[in-house]
Predict the structure.
Amino acid sequence: LVVDMAAKLRTKGTRATKESTMRRPCRVHAVQTSSPSSVRQPGQTGRIKSPMTLTEKILAKHCQKDVVRPGENVWTQVDCMMTHDVCGPGTIGIFKREFGEDAKVWDKEKIVLIPDHYIFTEDVRANRNVDILRDFAQEQGIKHFYDITDRSDFKANPDYKGVCHIALAQEGFCRPGEVLFGTDSHTCNAGAFGQFATGIGNTDAGFIFGTGKLLVKVPPTMRFVLDGEMPNYLLAKDLILQIIGEISVAGATYRAMDFVGEAVSAMNMEERMTICNMAIEAGGKNGTCAPDEKTFEWVRARTDADFEPLYGDDTASFFADYRFDVSKLEPVVAAPHSPDNRKLARECREQKIDRVYIGSCTGGKTEDFMSAAKLFHGAGRQVKVPTYLVPATQKVWADVYTLPVPGTGGKTCAQIFQDAGCETPAAPSCAACLGGPQDTYARMNEAQVCVSTTNRNFPGRMGNKEASIYLASPYTAAASALAGHVEDPREYLA
């Protein structure tokens, strides 16, 4: 796929001034193309007879077939099954109903139970959900249950982790070439590791509990080539919002989204997680990044488990190809009330805001807080609106308080956030990302306007149905906190 970017910039937007035209982001459109001319050199066994995408190769291996094709239904073996406090009780109920009250799970070491959604609340039903997980873990002898018993001090619970998707990565459950299912739509986060990872419902999860397999329709793959050098004012969140704005929230419905290119190769693992995490916001079945040495270094530092990385073939058939030159993109936001309502951050400067929220599986990782702290430190100013900080996991929380932010003379994120007047970093959990009970930390209980590093901005997503949420990168969120309105982070980044 070859796109004449200059021609697009010349012909789009006749009402724009010369200056704004030069700053206009490149917008590309999907075209179904033939396979690229660059063919991978055949190995010693000869030419590839049945090329497949990364997703197809993983599913083929796990259903013990040489080849699978999009639309084919296959029984895939499961390497890891995760559930949390919101869906866990329902999954457990279905498992017991279908397999028997005294039934045992197929593999007690391949099930991961992570309380993370509605944890720090006095809501009795939410608390009961965690109790149900605890009872089931004890009954089944589940090895990987990350319990919390003292909600008054999360640090007193050494087993408690926080947001499931980041905890899965930090605990070594995200491994190249494997299959991971979770009862949460953002399970696709783990695709950053070259893993087939996708969210499922309680019924499917209950079936996996009993059998260790699931019937899956092989999704077609859409390829997104992200080339060029990332400008210092862009983050992975800008790229995925750009993509979703291009194809819409239904543009990748039940399709694998494969992210490749120079920009992806240059990303660290947490930035790759950000991109794969929001594949579901485009309707995607899963997202993938090919594993490389960065992947292997991350995984080997966290687990001794063996894994076999797999790679898609260049000559595989793709449903569609998109190509972006990231060097020509600008910071973007997703305006209310949909993740595909893409706008340039600089075009939204007149929108005053009431608060900023930095957290979630999408935007509450160590690198996300590092990015926000970098901007705050460089600006040397105080925030104008309440700025809530919710680290995804205990590990991230510790990083916020201990790791020095590069270029700040040894200051930690926590020190910089305090200097900027932000709220004290909260206990790690999903917190306000999913709204939750009324007493959930930073929940939007009023019809306010928020710039957030989370993943969804539908009405009521973070609480009040009349609230307005602008999805943004940590850079844009931090800049907006300083400005008191939606702001382009270039105003504060040197």
About this structure: Residues 1-46 have pLDDT under 50 and may be disordered. The CA atoms of residues 142 and 345 lie 46 Å apart.
